[in-house]
Amino acid sequence: MIEALVHAFYGKVRRDPALGPIFDRVIGDGWDEHLARMCDFWSSVLLMTGRFKGAPMAAHIQVGGIRGTHFAHWLHLFGQTADEVCPPPAAALFKVRAEMIAQSLQLGIAASRGEAA
């Protein structure tokens, strides 16, 4: 289910006029690797597998140009995709965790810029 959600979601992200260019700028030709990392990430977040080894905050801080509207749009697409791909209880869990992660990243990015979130 994680793999299906990750691949469906990032397929939408790549086609999205607001998010696609940001992800393409950062990921370039590394989409296969990114998708595998995101599957590991969600496996670690939801199933506590420990498969993900990385620093999401540092990675997002380095991107530059990410605004709150991007996070809101990301959450909308993610929630929509979770509802399409997952049974309702799983979709709800994915969405709650995604909201917590987005909030944490937004706060961390704002703090790194010396801004109030």
TrEMBL record:
GO molecular function: heme binding; oxygen binding
CDD domains found in the cross-reference section: TrHb3_P (cd08916)
The protein's name in its UniProt record: Truncated hemoglobin protein
Organism, scientific name: Phenylobacterium zucineum (strain HLK1)
Source taxonomy: Bacteria, Pseudomonadati, Pseudomonadota, Alphaproteobacteria, Caulobacterales
